[in-house]
Amino acid sequence: MLIKCDNSQWIVNVDQEASLSTQAERLTRETITAFMHDIRAAGEQLEMNANPRLALEVLMLRMP
Predict the structure, then answer these.
(1) All residues at 6 or more sequence positions from 8 whose CB lies less than 8 Å from its CB, including other chains
(2) What global pTM score does this model have?
(3) Which of 2, 23, 24, 32 could form a disulfide with 7 if both were Cys (CB 3.0 to 4.6 A apart)?
(4) What is the pLDDT of residues 1-21, one digit of tens each?
(5) Do 35 and 64 contact (CB within 8 A), yes or no?
(6) CA atoms within 13 A on the CB side of 2
(7) CA distance 8 to 16
(8) What separation in angstroms does the CA of 38 have from each of 6, 13, 15?
(9) In this structure, what are the phi and psi dihedrals at residue 25, rounded to the nearest 5 degrees?
(10) CA 44, 46, 51, 56 torsion-angle sign
(11) Taking the chain, what is the end-to-end CA distance rounded to the nearest angstrom?
(12) How is residue 51 annotated by DSSP?
């Protein structure tokens, strides 16, 4: 998301910037935002004592 929104100065792992740029080219902002919401939802499910394996499996299936 940082690269997609021209905020690459905030990247912590600068050694991964080339790989991140490649991924940013193939994803839209909407797709990235939707997956960020999915990550937050999985965290909330885990806080409510959902089965960790199931919650993370669903998250990985939704990964773009």
Answers:
(1) 2, 17
(2) 0.78
(3) 2
(4) 889 888 888 999 889 999 989
(5) yes
(6) 12
(7) 11
(8) 23, 23, 26
(9) -65, -30
(10) positive
(11) 13
(12) -
- Phi, psi (deg, nearest 5) at residue 62: -90, -5
Please compute the mean of the pLDDT values over residues 26-53 and round it to a whole number.
96
User: What rounded mean pLDDT belongs to the chain?
Assistant: 93
Structure tokens of 4? 């997609």
Q: How far is the C-alpha of 20 from the C-alpha of 1, rounded, in Å?
A: 9
Under a CB-based contact definition with an 8 Å cutoff, are residues 1 and 29 in contact?
yes
Distance between CA atoms of 14 and 34, rounded to whole angstroms? 24
The alpha carbon of residue 50 and the mean position of all alpha carbons in its chain are separated, in whole angstroms, by 20
Nearest to 56 by CA among 32, 36, 46, 35: 46
